[in-house]
Amino acid sequence: MSALDILLWVALPYVTIAILAVGLWWRYRYDRFGWTTRSSQLYERRLLRIASPLFHLGILAVVGGHVVGLLIPSAWTEALGVPESVYHAFAVGLGAVAGFCTLVGVALLIYRRRTTGPVFMATTVNDKTMYVFLVAAIATGLLTTMVGAGLVGDGHDYREDVSPWFRSIFLLQPQGELMAEAPMSFRLHALAGMALFVIWPFTRLVHAFSAPIGYLFRPYIVYRSRDEAGVGSRAARRGWDRIGS
Fold this sequence. Notes:
- With 245 residues, this protein is mostly helical.
- It has helices at residues 3-30, 46-71, 74-79, 84-115, 117-121, 125-149, 162-170, 176-180, 184-199.
- α4 packs antiparallel against α6.
């Protein structure tokens, strides 16, 4: 491997993990009240009702696909009676659907944030930077799906190089040469993913590491709409109310 390959596929993954871990600890220790999505639902709901489920359900499916594809060796799925061809077909099909939903969802979120005045005013430079890295990771992920399916190029089985490289990082036996020989689209996706995780603790994406266990046990919150007569259930009256009999 070249020095650049060692830097990108051996050193950089550990730097990313270190920044992610220390960044999450720092954020929780010194910015606990900022550990939030800074919801803008009060400003606009119509687009949010469509974009948010598309993005969140899509990203959950994408994460699940990465967990199965990167952490579970092909020998294990074959031992369970799942041929590699069947696994590949399901992975490409479900990955394409999940990636498309995620991309459409984040595109609608960006459109909403850009075209809705109050939401745009509440958008920070940090938010804009986060969206750039997020879209880059999603777009390159879709590109790898098309490459893996053979829609672009001759097709590629990432479980032969990308997955073993990923597992080798956590086994503390990094095999950077595997990733160095992977197609360019997979290398770009890996770099985009690591860049996203580097900035993750310092953006609103940090809420993904929250476990809303308290929501299961908290009391119900009662919401009442404001009627035309004013606040409360009784119409406003002129003058003083009589006290007593």
